[in-house]
Write a sequence for this structure.
């Protein structure tokens, strides 16, 4: 009996999964005891031959799209069983095999076609097979081989085994000794990315330095994609082994035909975090069943982190800000105005090295006028980038408003002679629809205040270029992201992204 390795089965792009359950025939209570062999019958619906066979099998005619199994090759505890297969109403059954009551380990399960040469097994063709643990598609089944089954006297024994076939089709199963099946198609999408960095030298010592062209302003992105099905983690893929160069990332995932499947692909990109390097989440794609992520004409989902590219990718991500997760924020000196020409001076502490902000005093602004904050008090704050508002707590996750604020700070030269109070007032109008009455040492809104707020209205998708300014936002640490506005003001500083 030749040995057929299942790893050779997984080069195909469309594979169906069948959930299989076996059981033994109910014994007659007469002349039976616990040491009597029990009959076990396996069954499966008619399956199809795929586009290619295993390297050890002979290819079938391209017109033979309904190839049937002639026999099953089942290896249990080193013994190979080859019961013949017959069909009833489109369902394939094996002849019964007899097993003593006990536990059995199935190490191989294959449905085979004898290629019309029943006495010559060298040219037999694999119709379907169960995946082995460690194979590329082991993650797509709940119990890859090896699999332990039990045969119990005087009981109906059922066990689930999942097998992959080469071509998906509709099928059903019946009978008291049967394999029950649910069809699944393995789908695939392709991904490629670029990363734009402001200072390539920041990535000295990273994996990017090992790429063919070394460190550059624009480099192939090293990234991973975590696959979730119905909000349950399934499998992860990354291109780290080839440094993101020379090939796209192939992401395969199983889609059951009988239910609506909700998929989420989380994109993590290898970036600098403080003085170290690692994967950070930047985006999630969601879709159902056989839907595909927009991939343009080339069929590859391409993305760019940063906006140094002139061509439009399928996904353009804003520049990355290397920020700490938390810091201590304290208003020092007087407010309205602070000594650096903003609403307040903010002293930031508790920040490690390597980030885009550091320990020190910054010109800081207030994002909401209806909440107060105390001068001279240390606040533990969570730190966020305004360029990724979907990661902000709900009470301040206003993508359009933060884009308008960033536009204003990148175009203050349009308003010669502006004052700190007019800028702060415009911020309150943009963020909170401020009524314009004097408040918190901020003077009443004047014509220039309203002009700045009005001019920003058409820039709800603004993203600053490198060398511009982007708000870094501070909210009270541990704030419930779904709660209402906390009793501490949301504050921010402007940092070059």
């Amino acid at each position: 009996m030749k040995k057929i390795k299942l790893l050779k089965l997984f080069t195909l792009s469309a594979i169906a999964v069948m959930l299989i359950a076996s059981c033994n025939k109910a014994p007659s209570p007469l002349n039976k005891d616990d040491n009597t062999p029990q009959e076990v019958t396996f069954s499966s619906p008619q399956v199809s031959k795929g586009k290619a066979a295993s390297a050890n099998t002979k290819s079938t005619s391209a017109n033979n799209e309904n190839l049937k199994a002639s026999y099953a090759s089942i290896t249990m505890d080193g013994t190979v069983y080859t019961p013949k297969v017959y069909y009833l109403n489109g369902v394939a059954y094996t002849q019964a095999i007899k097993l003593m009551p006990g536990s059995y380990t199935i190490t191989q399960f294959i449905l085979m076609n004898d290629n019309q040469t029943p006495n010559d097994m060298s040219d037999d063709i694999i119709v379907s097979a169960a995946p082995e643990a460690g194979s590329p598609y082991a993650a797509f089944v709940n119990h890859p081989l090896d699999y332990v089954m039990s045969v119990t006297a005087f009981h109906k024994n059922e066990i689930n085994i999942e097998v992959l076939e080469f071509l998906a089709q509709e099928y059903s199963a019946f009978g008291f000794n049967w394999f029950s099946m649910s069809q699944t198609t393995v789908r695939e999408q392709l991904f490629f990315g670029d990363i734009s960095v402001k200072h390539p030298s920041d990535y000295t010592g990273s994996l990017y330095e090992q790429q063919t062209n070394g460190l550059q302003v624009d480099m192939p992105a090293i990234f991973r994609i975590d696959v979730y099905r119905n909000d349950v983690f399934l499998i992860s893929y990354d291109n780290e082994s080839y440094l993101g160069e020379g090939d796209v990332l192939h992401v395969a995932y199983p889609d059951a035909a009988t239910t609506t499947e909700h998929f989420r692909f989380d994109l993590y990109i290898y970036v600098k975090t403080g003085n170290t390097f690692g994967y950070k989440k930047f985006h999630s794609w969601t879709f159902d069943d056989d839907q595909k992520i927009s991939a343009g004409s080339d069929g590859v989902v391409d993305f760019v982190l940063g906006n140094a590219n002139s061509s439009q990718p399928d996904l353009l991500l804003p520049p990355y800000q290397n920020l700490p997760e938390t810091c201590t924020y304290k208003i020092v000196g007087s407010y309205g105005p602070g000594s650096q020409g903003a609403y307040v001076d903010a002293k930031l502490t508790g920040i490690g090295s390597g980030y885009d902000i550091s320990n020190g005093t910054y010109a800081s602004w207030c994002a909401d006028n209806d909440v107060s904050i105390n001068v001279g008090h240390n606040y533990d704050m969570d730190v966020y980038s305004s360029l990724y508002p979907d990661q902000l707590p709900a009470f301040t996750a206003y993508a359009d408003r933060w884009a308008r604020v960033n536009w204003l700070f990148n175009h203050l030269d349009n308003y010669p002679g502006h004052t700190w109070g007019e800028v702060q007032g415009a911020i309150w109008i943009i963020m909170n629809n401020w009524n314009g009455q004097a408040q918190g040492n901020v003077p009443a809104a004047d014509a220039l205040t309203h002009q700045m707020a009005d001019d920003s209205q058409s820039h709800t998708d603004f993203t600053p270029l490198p060398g511009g300014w982007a708000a870094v936002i501070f909210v009270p640490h541990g704030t419930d992201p779904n709660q209402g506005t906390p009793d501490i003001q949301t504050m921010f500083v402007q940092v070059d992204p």
